[in-house]
Specification:
alpha/beta; six-stranded mixed β-sheet; 18% strand
Length: 164
């Protein structure tokens, strides 16, 4: 898949019965909201990302996904600072590639990025091992952590764009 990436992911979301796992360093609120709204409410949603203040300040990731996931039953958010993988699992279907969860990456924005995602056959033991490793090397952010990242991000924005 290298076109209609977002629509392909939406199609996978609609068919999930047990769990969807989204792993990407950059996640925008609008994009994640669109995707998880297609996931049946009874299914679990696990999201792994990273929140570096400089990246939040640049606008590539949104801290608002914290509240989005907190408001959804069976949803979790975990952070891993070294994350670079783009990995999406819909029950036993695994998709990997270069696309983050942003409108630019998934083809939902004007002049979108050229990205690739491909469905791969991976033994359950392998994806379970990868996800367990990530789980064990991540943290669950609370509202205070989110607010601290926001404060650090705002400070960087002020340094880059001082008031005139």
């Amino acid at each position: 898949m290298f076109h209609d990436l977002g629509d392909s992911l939406l199609s996978f979301c609609e068919k999930v019965q047990q769990e969807v796992v989204f792993i990407a360093p950059f996640i925008k609120h609008k994009t994640l909201s669109k995707l998880i709204s297609a996931v049946p409410v009874a299914a679990g949603v696990a999201v792994y990302t990273r929140w570096r203040p400089e990246e939040v300040a640049m606008g590539v990731s949104d801290l608002e996904i914290f509240d989005l996931l907190a408001s959804r039953p069976q949803a979790t958010l975990r952070l891993t600072n070294s994350l670079h993988a783009k990995y999406y699992r819909f029950d036993s279907i695994t998709v990997i590639g270069s696309a983050n969860l942003t409108e630019m990456a998934l083809g939902w924005a004007r002049n979108s990025n050229l990205e690739i995602l491909t469905q791969i056959e991976i033994p359950q033991s392998d994806w379970m091992r990868f996800e367990k490793f990530l789980f064990n090397h991540s943290l669950i952010p609370d509202a205070q952590f989110r607010d601290d990242v926001k404060s650090a991000s705002d400070h960087l924005v002020e340094k880059w764009h001082p008031p005139v």
